[in-house]
Every structure is written in structure tokens, then in C-alpha cells.
Amino acid sequence: MPGEEDRFYADLGRRVRTRRRELQLSQESLATKLNLKRTSITNLERGHQRISAFTFLKLAKCLGIPLNELVERSQPTSELEALFSSNMPDSIRLWIEGAVAPRNRPKGISAAKS
Fold it and tell me: Which of 15, 30, 32, 73 sees the fewest Cβ atoms within 10 Å?
């Protein structure tokens, strides 16, 4: 029986695959943008690949969607629920928004280099 973490990554993989196809991106092109191998994208879409927080940010940016859309329909762990809740401190929310959508970043906030 799959655990909570397994369900989270399976849900994430389905959303990544759906969005990638909507954008008509190949697994290879998405992998290149994320500095990963195509097989990593295959495994991610199947729910078998774990990714770092930084890659997660880059993934949302490449797919052109907010982080919460990548996690909202899954059954995330309580830590992830807290991280992506509406109670997130403004400073953290602004940093994440700036990292994911730099064109919408408020003046004075810089995004990390990817």
C-alpha cells in the first residue's frame, strides 16, 4: 500500500505530465531546461523520482504555473501543507513568487540564479 510520500509524488508526476503535454514539450526538452536527464523526467512523471526544492522551483517556472498548482490536488505531508498554505509569511511567499515568475517580481526582490 503506497504511503503518503508515494501518493504525493505520483500526483505530482501526473500534474507534470499533463502540463508538459499542454505546453507540447517533450520530456527531453523539459529535462534540458531543468538540467536533468530525460529518464529523470520519465521517472518524475511516474512518481518514482524525488527532486530537490530548487529543482521543484525551476520545474514550476518551466511549466509556467505557481508552486501551489503542482501540489494542491495531492495528499501532501503536513510540512508541505504548512509551506504552501495561505498562512505563509509574506517574505517567503514573495521570494517563491519571485523565483518562479521573475517577470512579476516586485521591485527590490531579486530571484536566485538558475
Answer: 73
Q: What is the pLDDT of residue 48?
A: 93
Given a cut of 80, whether residue 67 has pLDDT beyond it is yes
Best CA proximity match to 71, nearest among 90, 92, 85: 85
Question: Which of the two residues, 40 and 87, has the higher pLDDT score?
Answer: 40
pLDDT of residue 104: 46
Q: Which CATH number fits domain 4-104: 3.40.50.1220, 1.10.260.40, 3.30.300.30, 3.40.50.720?
A: 1.10.260.40
In 3D space, the residue among 23, 36, 35, 51 whose CA is nearest the CA of residue 113 turns out to be: 35
Alpha-carbon dihedral angle through residues 24, 40, 114, 95, given to the nearest 10 degrees: 90
Query: Where in the chain are the domains?
Result: 4-104
Q: What is the pLDDT of residue 36?
A: 95
pTM confidence score: 0.62
89: three-class secondary structure by DSSP: coil
Contact 67/75 with Cβ under 8 angstroms? no
